[in-house]
Specification:
Length: 134
Amino acid sequence: MTEYRVSARRIDSHGSLAVAKEAKVVLDTDMAGRRDAMNPVELLLSALAACMLKGIERVTPMLQFQIDGAEVALEAIRQDAPPKLTLIRYQITVDSAETDQRLDLLHRNILKYGTISNTLSGAVPLEGTLTRKV
């Protein structure tokens, strides 16, 4: 069993700070919003993007998959009452000459072995594709 720890504290009415290991992230906790920090939904989407990119790093050696780059774009749909996300869409784009069948295999493995993607998919629908960079 793996455990993770993050601590966060309020700096002022405009923001907060999260710390994990030696990393620090400024949080947008200002009711008016901030352009220089991520809000909670953006942080959640960033965690999902990191999970997918880390999944690529994890499975490409196992699949002997050649990749020259990868990007993830995400968007979330939020309802107001009660406030919750109702859908997360993603687009994974890889720079690779692998076959379409191998790209599909990579996509399935990214979702199958992703801690964050597995956790979120139990709470909100995840819709997306993995495509080749044009």
